[in-house]
Amino acid sequence: MHTEQVQRHRTPIQTATAVDRSNPKKPRRHIAQDIVASRRRQRQRIGVVAVVCIGLATLLVAFE
Questions:
Q1: What are the Cα distances from residue 42, in Å, to 4, 49, 53?
Q2: 61, CA 20 to 30 Å: which among 1, 19, 24, 45?
């Protein structure tokens, strides 16, 4: 009895879970942390501008 082996083209099995193929050396995005940090910087800048304006106003009043 002669049996023939059938050669099938094997395709990779698709898994239900997604495989992370991103570059591990690439820095990951932290969008929420970036937003919080940018708002913190913006509040600091607004504070500095407010202090400078108040300081200039007091100097203007003092020299009148």
A1: 74, 11, 16
A2: 45
